[in-house]
Amino acid sequence: MASLKELKGRINSVKSTQKITKAKQMVAAAKLRKAQAAAEAARPYAARLAEVMASLASKITVSENSPKLLAGTGSDQVHLLVVANSDKGLAGAFNSNIVKAALAAARELEAKGKTVLFYLVGKKGRAVIRRTYPKSVLQMFDTTDVREPGYNEAERIADELVTLYENGKFDVAHLFFSKFRNALTQEPTQQQIIPVPAPKAASADTGAVVEYEPDEEEILAALLPRYLRTQLFGALLENNASEQGASMTAMDNATRNAGELINALTIQYNRSRQAAITTELIEIIAGAEAL
Q1: Which tens digits make up the pLDDT trace of 17-30?
Q2: pTM
Q3: How far apart are CA 198 and CA 54, in angstroms?
């Protein structure tokens, strides 16, 4: 049985940990409000750009002469999995869920005879993927010095991916990130980003006659890189909001668990202290009787 000194030390240690988890919970809650607002604000822009893309795509016939980002390479043998993680831990299963989804997709593609490569964003999750696929990591994007990944990072990632694509390093790219639902729910999501999936036809036809200058295909070719950057930007924002939500929930659970442990240790301490007092009294009484 632990001594009173040891129990008191454990109680103080857990109280110190509880203060840290409580502080991190409050920080994550503050960051979550901003991150959630940013993610929600970006969604309408992405949706509207998709509608414009759909309108333009409906007016052309996709062929081998179409922009490569839309038409593809003519093959789907080599698949690049773009795995977007964070650089920090203490966010529950946020990073591990994204990695699990990517590894599951990799195994499924390999079962179909496809070649799988990885493009890793963020530090978390790298170790698992590099250990599982040591020769398949094509490139890594470092976000260590970035407080909150934003459009600049999305643009750089998109440019690197397009360069790799044009150099024939892969045929299809899939993006893995966590879509923010609420503070308690973050949904690991897989999305094909290269070649850009042909957008669904515009839902509403206003009947207006629109003349494009230059033509639709040229405008679409100029919009495709912007569309790719927008998808990556939205994913980074969703990831940031998901990370803060997961972190807030994890720290709240840790704070509660610490409180329960403190209560249990305090009860044990009081019982041990009472037992020690009782033993001491018995020894005093026994000594008095001996006299």
Answers
A1: 989 999 988 999 99
A2: 0.82
A3: 8
Closest CA to 168 of 77, 70, 62, 66: 77
Average pLDDT, the chain: 85
> Phi first, then psi: what are they for 289, rounded to 5°?
-65, -35
Quick one: which of 169, 193, 161 has its CA closest to 78? Answer: 169
44: tokens are 């309408």
Distance CA 195, CA 171 (A): 8
Q: Beginning with the edge strand found earlier in the chain, give each strand of the sheet holding 185-194 in spatial order.
A: 137-141, 115-121, 78-84, 172-182, 185-194
Q: How far apart are CA 82 and CA 191, in angstroms?
A: 10
